[in-house]
């Protein structure tokens, strides 16, 4: 009965359910690190995100996509634990409306809706998005015993990227892997994100080519800049597990709708994201860069895929002509 009611209003998208499954350990980890507020925040964002899509799809007599649940989770995981509820809600409404609905709904959006939402609140409400952070709990029961963990009051206790930008100090690698550091809700634990990436690749839901291309572009340019003696960036491995790079690589860059579709395009698209992220981190005022890098690369995807398809078609025509002349 429940299944029939669900299918009445929602599209059947098995791929999206797989992504949600991969995110469950990260959600549980976020509660452990920052408290139950993260789950409340996620619930509110999901209600308003699904509600916004319902309003638009109802007018077109279409079902709600299960992808909107993924959008809501990914968006929430990129937010600081202490962000005001109303700001998070405004962000998801904007993201679903202008990142998805205005393009015609699921499958037609050019940009990743979760990142559209994140970019909107990032530039509109910079203080709660870039200054107000929470300490990560360590040791059982951690955040399971509190609404939200204690707030960060000094730069020396801020996120790894901010600490390095302001003092040159690097958080120990073990903490970066485990995730008991200040940061966005779901972006702190490198281990959980990597395991999710392996699971998505195993299930053939996420493109390993895009992930590999992104890592190649990021580490390649990062190594060149670092080993040339630029002290403005950390060593490439630290940079790899800091900020939202890994989370963006696994979940945002591999979005099947806004990402590249052709095999060659996936590699180029991934490298582009990695390179742009490193450029932004090194030469701009932003400590991260992954969000903007993916959105910028999204704009080139249609042209990139069409160019590759056109090139392949041209090569086939040339091959046919040569074969015809040979005969």
Automatic annotation (TrEMBL):
Membrane-crossing segments per the record: 15-33, 85-103, 115-134, 177-201, 208-227, 233-254, 266-284
Keywords, alphabetical: Flavoprotein, FMN, Membrane, Oxidoreductase, Phosphoprotein, Translocase, Transmembrane, Transmembrane helix, Transport
EC number assigned by the record: 1.6.5.-
PANTHER family, A to Z: ELECTRON TRANSPORT COMPLEX PROTEIN RNFD, NA(+)-TRANSLOCATING NADH-QUINONE REDUCTASE SUBUNIT B
One GO cellular component term noted in the UniProt record for this chain: plasma membrane
GO biological process, one term: transmembrane transport
Protein name stated in the entry: Na(+)-translocating NADH-quinone reductase subunit B
Lineage, top ranks: Bacteria, Bacillati, Bacillota, Tissierellia, Tissierellales
GO MF annotations, alphabetized: oxidoreductase activity
InterPro entries, per the entry: NqrB/RnfD (IPR004338), RnfD_bac (IPR011303)
Signal peptide positions (record): none
Pfam families, alphabetized: NQR2_RnfD_RnfE
Principal EC category: oxidoreductase
